[in-house]
Model the fold of this input.
Amino acid sequence: MSSSSRFISLLTACTCSALISHATLADTRIYTSPESLEEGSVFILNTVLQHESACGSRYQQQLTIQEQEISIRFEEPADLACTEQHIPGLSTTFQQQVGPLPVGNYQVSVYRVNGQLDQKFTLVIDRVSRTFEFVNHESPTTGQTVSGVGLIRGWACDWYSQDHLLQYQIDGGEKHIIPYGSERVDSEDRCSGAGRTQKYNGWGAVVNWNNYSPGTHLLSIWYNGRKVKENEIIIAKHSGAFLKGLSRNTSVTDFPSLGEQTSLSWSEANQNFIIVESK
Done:
């Protein structure tokens, strides 16, 4: 859904006089009425009409919304001629889906069958409160040297936004979109709580650092139009933007531990040396 949707019941109970054909709603009670709903919410209005005859099931509920006024009325069909025996305790439930409604205070009025106002209350539609939003930028970190073809990556938790527009920017230049939604079981617990979970929270974008000049650059991360992270990174590069047809192997001694030797091989796809063996 484009915004948060939830179903909340507003229960109203109405009792009628013994003769349904001359019914008046003598008693109306709101058992549950939320004080506030989030913008974009959808709720179900349940109205319980209590009566003493099966004829009551033929009554009709009329719900109208005009600007910020919500009216609930009951209408008796013109052809209703009730001759059935009175049976105490019968009731009919009317259900009406309402929303989503714009932000504002809505006056909800419930009327008796005879047209008399029985009850009035205020329903507040409030803006979505972003109570849980967190963007974590993992790499590259501040002061890190990058080269070749690398990855800008991290993870983000947001229980409310459906867009998740992530972008990166170098030195205040053009913003580039970062794909969002990869599975990150390692950060799932960080994005969970209050009955919500978000396993597909990873984001990352492939960048050819050879397209930028060598030296210090400012990397900015944007989330839904807001700058959320900013790191200074160091770009190291060779003479070309993308070297092709090259092959080279080398080794590093005493790495990662004293006495160990690590073999490196040039990778065209990564535009960098990669570890092929360590012993």
Remarks:
- The chain has no helices and 21 strands.
- Residues 218 and 278 are 34 Å apart (CA to CA).
- The chain has a mean pLDDT of 75.
